[in-house]
């Protein structure tokens, strides 16, 4: 009986081929199922290890392709905090990169108005310290009890992340950044406040064109050309690339350069300092502060004359020193202009009280 069945099966026109196809399909389906299970197990292991296992699993699954075998690079980052990168197996797959770095105080080059208003008053920071500026999401976390293992006290760290080669996912990346930040805060015994999900912000250079809409730096927006009043030599016009402004954490400063109708130059500058900068400022400008309000005449036969007007007050960041100066090729009218400019500058200051004018002085 069995021989006759087998014989009929073999003689059938399409049944043997269909059976072979079904068997191959079953084998292939089994292979795919096993492969998918192994890929899923591998990706779960990646989830458990990525950034010390602190990243939310649902976020990673939403950012990375689930039909790809994920690749992980993780471990200590710059200065031994954390860095990890998770991506798919194809070159075109999105790549999530997250890093946690200490916030170190860079060496200060100077506290003068030119230093504050220039590109940076600090020595050049290492590349890893500025990487957060280009990130999709970043958060700075206070660590009052300090991070161990550093020669100088480190009381803050920063976590930043981006999804490269993928769709806009700032909210999801921000969630991952905050999760790692809170994990590191607890693991390092930092104390302080827990990190909240709305603490994550885009990097400073990823905030769109809001600041580009007004080319005037924020520290220079107090000034109006009419504040110069009547100027010897004809109405001045702004010099090319003659406006610079800066706002480090302890100061804000602005320098403005002009060209008069007679072709000669003049300038205006402003600055305010507070907090840790005050001792350095009192040293740097010691001669000016000692001479402020004591009268005196400018030195003769100089190519340019400058008057600085000083004041102090208590503002939102504590005791604050203010300096406004103006310069020109002749001393005529400079002291009056310095008074008017200081009035305008102090009127624009926010949350300041108890203002005391320290006087004017001819700058050297």
In short:
This protein has 364 residues and is of the alpha+beta class. Helices cover 29% and strands 26% of the residues.
Structural commentary:
A hairpin with a 6-residue loop joins strand 1 and strand 2. The protein has helices spanning 2-11, 15-49, 57-63, 113-117, 127-130, 170-187, 278-284, 286-291, 334-348, and strands at 71-75, 82-87, 95-102, 137-142, 156-164, 237-246, 251-259, 265-274, 305-315, 318-328, 353-362. It is elongated and about 125 Å long. By secondary structure, it is α+β, with helices and mostly antiparallel strands. The strands form two sheets. It has a six-stranded antiparallel beta sheet.
Features:
single chain, 364 residues, alpha+beta, 6-stranded antiparallel sheet, 11 strands
Secondary structure elements and their pairing?
Layout: H1 2-11, H2 15-49, H3 57-63, E1 71-75, E2 82-87, E3 95-102, H4 113-117, H5 127-130, E4 137-142, E5 156-164, H6 170-187, E6 237-246, E7 251-259, E8 265-274, H7 278-284, H8 286-291, E9 305-315, E10 318-328, H9 334-348, E11 353-362
Antiparallel strand pairs: 1-2, 2-3, 3-5, 4-5, 6-7, 7-8, 8-10, 9-10, 9-11
Helix pairs in contact: 3-6
């Amino acid at each position: 009986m069995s021989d006759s069945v087998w014989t009929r099966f073999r003689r059938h026109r399409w049944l043997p081929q269909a059976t072979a196809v079904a068997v191959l399909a079953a084998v292939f389906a089994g292979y795919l199922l096993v492969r998918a299970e192994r890929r899923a197990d591998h990706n779960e292991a990646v989830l458990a290890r990525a950034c010390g296992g602190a990243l939310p699993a649902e976020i990673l699954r939403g950012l990375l392709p689930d039909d790809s075998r994920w690749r992980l690079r993780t471990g200590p980052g710059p200065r031994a905090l954390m860095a990890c990168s998770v991506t798919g197996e194809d070159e075109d797959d999105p790549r999530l990169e997250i890093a946690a770095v200490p916030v170190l105080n860079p060496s200060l080059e100077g506290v003068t108005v030119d230093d504050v208003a220039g590109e940076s008053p600090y020595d050049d920071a290492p590349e890893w310290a500025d990487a957060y500026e280009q990130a999709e999401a970043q958060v700075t976390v206070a660590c009052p009890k300090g991070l161990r293992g550093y020669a100088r006290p480190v009381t803050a760290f920063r976590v930043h992340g981006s999804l490269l080669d993928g769709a806009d996912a700032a909210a999801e990346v921000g969630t991952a950044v905050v999760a790692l930040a809170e994990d590191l805060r607890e693991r390092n015994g930092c104390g302080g406040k827990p990190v909240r999900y709305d603490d994550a912000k885009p990097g400073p250079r990823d905030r769109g064109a809001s600041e580009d809409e007004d080319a005037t730096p924020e520290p220079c927006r107090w000034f109006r050309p009419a504040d110069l009043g009547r100027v010897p030599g004809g109405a001045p016009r702004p010099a090319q690339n003659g406006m610079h402004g800066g706002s480090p954490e302890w100061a804000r400063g602005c320098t403005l350069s002009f060209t008069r109708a007679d072709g000669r130059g003049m300038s205006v500058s402003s600055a305010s300092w507070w907090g840790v900068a005050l001792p350095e400022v009192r040293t740097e400008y010691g001669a000016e502060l000692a001479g402020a309000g004591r009268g005196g005449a400018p030195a003769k036969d100089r190519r340019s004359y400058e008057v600085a007007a000083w004041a102090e007050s208590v503002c939102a960041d504590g005791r604050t020193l203010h300096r406004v100066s103006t310069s020109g090729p002749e001393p005529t009218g400079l002291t009056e202009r310095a008074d008017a400019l200081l009035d305008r500058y102090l009127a624009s200051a926010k949350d300041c009280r108890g203002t005391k004018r320290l006087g004017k002085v001819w700058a050297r």
